[in-house]
Structures are given as structure tokens and as C-alpha cells.
Amino acid sequence: MIALKAVVLALSAVSALGHQLASRQPKRGCATEISAAQKDAVEADFAARRTGLPAKKAAPVTIPTYFHIIRAEETVDRGDIPESQVIAQMDALNAAFVNTPYTFELKETTRTTNETWFDVASPWGDDAVYQDDMKATLRRGGRESLNLYSLGFTDVSDGLLGYSTFASSYESNPQDDGVVFLYSTVPGGSRAIYNLGGTVSHEVGHWVGLYHTFNEGDGGEEWDTCDVSTDLVDDTPAQLYPTNGCPERSDTCPDVPGDDAIHNYMDYSDDVCYNNFTPGQVERMIAQMAIYRGL
Ligand SMILES: *[C@@H]1O[C@H](CO)[C@@H](O)[C@H](O)[C@H]1NC(C)=O
Ligand SMILES: [Zn+2]
């Protein structure tokens, strides 16, 4: 029954992840999505509010961070990651954001034993109620605080590594705000290829207001044109589809100047390949964080 559910989800067109698993695998699984209608509305609001925004210097900002560990049992392979890996994850996150104004400061680590949350919490369908319960119980702080939730996705999908809310969605749904990710992606975790902490850095990229560097259509579906760059950042070239692994170089839009940003945290490359946010992304995150998180 459980296996069947996982297969159905993996093949379902409702999620970009399912689509990607079906077409080109294996690949990083991120379930952060926005519908075309939502994106249009959010970006119109952002553009309007950005116009009135006083020029902001990139002053250092400290983000209070709450790390919620959901475990099925009190063993590492059932989600109970040691504090040393929590610290290593915070270090990896801060290293990723070193060229931005943001430093993430660990305020508290919480540990909750709940096998249901560990196995099935997800943003999809009937199971969304569990992630809503989890966040309602555990979320700390206001719009300025980052809440991280590590869990297992055991009965959700083999490929899912994480998902996040966007900065712009805080106002309409504050309780949902935060990053949910696979516990074994922390540095030293068991999820090989994706166990250097890159998943949290990628998801926090969404949390500060960034989209994927590759082109996406409605709800994260693949987009088959190089004529636009759907991340709305000027210095990440148009990219037709996500990078898989860590190639020497890749250029999925050869008629557009510039190679794919394969080392960018907002691509789907392996953790070892990640090493930057571009100045354009940093500019966008500063405006997003000022407008939507008051920072
Ligand atoms: C575990 O999760 C279930 C389902 O969301 C919830 O009803 C229950 O209260 C949770 N238990 C604890 C100890 O958090
Ligand atoms: Zn993503």
C-alpha cells in the first residue's frame, strides 16, 4: 500500500518532482513550487513595492534560526541527527551565504518523536495536514526567523530532498513559513551525493526569495523555451532544464550568451558542485527580505 502510494506520487503530474523523476533521473528533488497565476501576482506586487524601496546598503543581518528535528525513533537512521551535524549544517549554510548580508544564528534545536510526521509530512494532497500540524506545533519567531524541519519523507517519494516557502508567502500564510528537508542531507548524513548540506542552502535560497536558475512553467513544470529566464535575475543565463550531477560545463541555451549556472545554489547540481549565488541574486534577495521580512 505504502509502496503503491509512493509510485503514484512519483508518477503524478501534480508535482514537478514527479515529472522530472519520470523524464531524467536521478536528479535533486526540490518540491518548492508556485503556480503561474500566483507568480504573476507576487511579482507584480514585488515590482511595485521595490520601486518605492529606499536604496538599501547591504548591511549585515543576523537571522534567528530554529532547527526542528523530527525523528521516528531515537536513532540517527530514524532521523535523530546528532548536534554535531546540526552545527555542521549551520556552518554549510553560512558558508553558502558568505557573499550575502545574511548570517544564520542557531537559537534552538528541538527534537520531536513523531513517526507520522517523519514518514509522510509533505506539501502534497492529504498529507499536507501533517506538515501543517508539525509547523503549528513547532514554528518559532516571526517573519524574520528561519525555521528548519528535518524529517524522513519515508512514504512520500524516494527523490524528495526538500521544499520551502517563499519570502513573499509569509504575509498570507505565516504559519507555513519555513524549510522542510530530508534529515540525511546534512553534512555527514547518509544521502550520498546530497550529503554536504547543499539541500538546506538551496531551500533557504527560496526562503530569501529566489527561484530556480533553470526555466520553469506553471507549478514547476519544465519549460521548453530559452526566450525567457524565469528566475527574473539578469546574471543567471536562460537555462532550459536542471543540471544533473556536476558536469564540466553545460549550455542548454546555446543561442543565449553564457553557460548554465551549474555551480549556482539554485540549480539542481550535486552538493559538491555548488559554490555561489550571483550578485543579481543577492540584489534580489536583499529587496525580497526588506519587503517581506522587514530585514
Ligand atoms: C504526531 O502527529 C500526529 C499527526 O499530525 C498528531 O496528531 C500528534 O499530536 C503528534 N504527536 C506529537 C507528540 O507531537
Ligand atoms: Zn528548489
Automatic annotation (TrEMBL):
Query: Cross-referenced InterPro entries, in alphabetical order?
Result: MetalloPept_cat_dom_sf (IPR024079), Peptidase_M43 (IPR008754)
Family designation: Belongs to the peptidase M43B family.
GO MF, any single term: metallopeptidase activity
* UniProt KW keywords: Disulfide bond, Hydrolase, Metal-binding, Metalloprotease, Protease, Signal, Zinc
Query: What PANTHER family has UniProt attached to this entry?
Result: METALLOPROTEASE MEP1 (AFU_ORTHOLOGUE AFUA_1G07730)-RELATED (PTHR47466:SF1), PTHR47466
Q: Where is the signal peptide?
A: 1-18
Which SUPFAM superfamilies has this protein been placed in? Answer: Metalloproteases ('zincins'), catalytic domain
UniProt keyword annotation of Repeat present: no
GO biological process terms, semicolon-separated = proteolysis
> What are the Peptidase M43 pregnancy-associated plasma-A domain coordinates in residue numbering?
193-289
Matches recorded under Pfam families:
Peptidase_M43
State the name under which the record lists this protein.
Metallo peptidase M43B, zinc-dependent metalloprotease, pappalysin-like protein
Q: What organism is the protein native to? A: Mycena indigotica
